[in-house]
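Collaborator request, handled under Task 6.
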Amino acid sequence: MGTELKDTFVQAYNDTYDYVNRYLTSKLPTRDLIEDALQSVYLDFYRSLITTEGKIKNVRHYVLRIAKHYVADHYRQQTKATFEDITDLNIPDEKALATLENADFFDYEQVMSYLKSSDDTTYRIFVLHYQYGYTIKKTASCLGLSQSTVKSRLYRTLDKLKKTYCEKEEQSNENDRYNESTLILPAPK
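C-alpha cells returned to the collaborator:
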C-alpha cells in the first residue's frame, strides 16, 4: 500500500470512526458484535481503497454505506423462528424457573397445559416471549400482530393464570384449615 493510500485510510479512519461506531452501536445488540463490525467495515474500506486506487469521492458516505450493508447482512443471516420450530416451552431464565419449581400454589405442568389449551396465538406469544426471550416488538413482528395485541394477550393471560391458580391456592388453604379444625376437636368423654 502506497503512502498516499495509507494516509487516505488513516485520515478516513480518524474522520469517520466515531460516527460509524455510534451508528453500529445503535443498530447491533452486543459490544463484541459492534467491534467485529467495525473491524469488518474498515477492512472492506481498506480493500476498496486498494481496488479503486484511492478514488473514493465521499469517504464518510462510503464507509457508512459499508456499515449499513454489514448491519443488513447481520440481520438477514438471523433465522426467523417459526411456530413449527417451537416444540416445547423451557424457560431459560433460571430465577423464573426456580420460582416456578418452588411455588406451592401451582404446578409448572398445570400452567403449560393451561397455555396449550388456550388459543394457538396466545401459546405462541408465550413461547416466543419467555422461551426465546423475544421482546414484545419482536414477538409481534414474528407473529404478524400489533404490539398492543401481543401485550394485551400476554397480560390478560397472566392475569387469568394468577386468578386461576391463586384461587385454587386459597381454596386449598381453606380446606386445610377446615381439616385442621376438625382434627383439633376434643375427644368426647
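The cover message to the collaborator said: "The mean pLDDT is 76. The radius of gyration is 28 Å. Please let us know whether this matches your experimental observations."
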